[in-house]
Structure formats: structure tokens, C-alpha cells
Amino acid sequence: MPLFAKPACEEALILSGSCARQSASDSGWIIATTILGSSMAFIDGTVVNVALPALQSGLGATLSEIQWVVEAYALFLAALVLAGGSRVER
Question: Is residue 12 situated within a structural domain?
Fold first, then answer.
């Protein structure tokens, strides 16, 4: 099985106790960013569903055509999440 990420610290450093530890303030920022990101994803999905009647009347689309709009939006958002979440380590 290939190794995609380097371990955070070598075993010898862990045993000696000189490995850098994450501070409590760093953890707070990580949690706040995670909460903000997940709530933005929820709001984003809600906005699309609220806009559907206006899109349907403006475009003169049927229900199945509007469903394609929702699916295309979800697919594009998923592609952006995958691209944004990937990390290249050199």
C-alpha cells in the first residue's frame, strides 16, 4: 500500500518528547474553520433550492430540466471540493 503522506514525526522524536505539539489556540481555529465551511455548504445548498422556482419560470423549464440544474450544480461543487481538498506533498 503506498504512503500518501509523511508521518507527523519520527518515532525517535516522539519517544524523546521533542516533537512539535499543536497548541490549544490552533485547535480553536481549526474547529472554527470546519464549522464555517460546513455551514457555508448547507447555506449554499439552500440557496440553490430557494432559487429553483425563479429559475424554472425564467427559463421556461420543466421539472426534469430543473433537476438537471440541481444535479449539475452538485457535480460542479463536488469537483471543486475535491480539487480544493487535495494536497500535493513534495
Answer: no
| The C-alpha cell that represents 89 in the structure block | 506533498
Residue 1 falls inside a structural domain: no
Beta-carbon contacts of 13 under 8 Å, excluding residues fewer than 6 positions away, are 19
> Which residue type does 27 have?
S
17 phi-psi bin (left φ>0, alpha ψ -120 to 50, beta other):
left
The pLDDT tens digits of the residues spanning 58-68 come to 999 999 999 89
Residue 77 one-letter amino acid: L
Domain coverage including residue 57: 38-90
pTM over 0.85: no
- Where would I find the H helices in 1-90? 11-16, 24-59, 63-85
Round the CA-based radius of gyration of the chain to a whole number and report it. 21
User: DSSP state, 5?
Assistant: S
In a domain, 48, yes or no: yes
**3 assigned to some structural domain:** no
